[in-house]
Amino acid sequence: MKYREMTVDDLQYVVEKNIEYYNTVEECCWTYEKAYKRIHQVLTMEDSMCMIQTDQDDNITGYLMGYFKEYDDIRGYFLEEIVIFVGHQGKGYGTDFLKHLEKVVNENNASIIELNSVNDDRHINFYSNLGFYPVSNFVMMGKFME
Ligand SMILES: CC(C)(COP(=O)(O)OP(=O)(O)OC[C@H]1O[C@@H](n2cnc3c(N)ncnc32)[C@H](O)[C@@H]1OP(=O)(O)O)[C@@H](O)C(=O)NCCC(=O)NCCS
């Protein structure tokens, strides 16, 4: 697989493929505008690093987006989203992508990759195979407003 940094020129294609996956496979209701805004927001933030994965024929097979974070003692990378597009999943592409990400994060002097995973067996299996594990010192919290 080949990798390059994502630019605003990739947005239209990435947004369309993102919507194709989430709205057809996961029955979500993304509009183009909302999906564009979500990805554009991460792409253009300070210390953002977003990447495109292509196969040997230069077809775009997926993308990931995230950003570097500063802590008092270390630098980290927060992976906001990784999506392997419809027709390309389950072929090892996501695994290859995260291995590549680890390399790039390391080259950028960051020592941890953090992410929020969907809490189901497939996702936990995917990330666990790459050495990720649930942390015990934090728990994600949320609250819907009434
Ligand atoms: C999750 C995802 C990035 C994994 O990439 P991939 O190339 O499909 O995965 P790989 O072939 O490298 O690894 C296979 C493992 O990934 C997981 N996996 C495969 N397809 C998946 C899917 N549609 N959703 C969730 N996990 C999936 C399984 O654990 C699988 O192992 P198994 O074959 O033993 O069941 C990819 O399937 C995807 O983009 N899913 C939809 C978007 C998503 O859920 N992103 C992550 C948000 S936390």
Keywords:
146 residues; alpha+beta; five-stranded mixed beta sheet; 4 helices; 35% helix; binds coenzyme A
Topology of helices and strands:
Elements lengths: L1 E4 L5 H15 L6 H12 L7 E4 L5 E11 L4 E10 L8 H15 L4 E4 L5 H9 L17
Parallel strand pairs: 4-5
Antiparallel strand pairs: 1-2, 2-3, 3-4
Characterization of this structure:
With 146 residues, the chain is an alpha+beta fold. The protein has one domain (2-129): Gcn5-related N-acetyltransferase (GNAT) (Aminopeptidase, 3-Layer(aba) Sandwich). It is built from four helices and five strands; from the N terminus they run βααβββαβα. The chain has helices at 11-25, 32-43, 93-107, 121-129, and strands spanning 2-5, 51-54, 60-70, 75-84, 112-115. The chain has a five-stranded mixed β-sheet, with helices on both faces. The protein is globular, with a radius of gyration of 15 Å. The relative contact order is 0.14. The structure holds coenzyme A. Coenzyme A binds next to β4, α3 and α4. Coenzyme A (COA) binds at residues 21, 82-84, 89-95, 117-118, 122-123, 125-126.
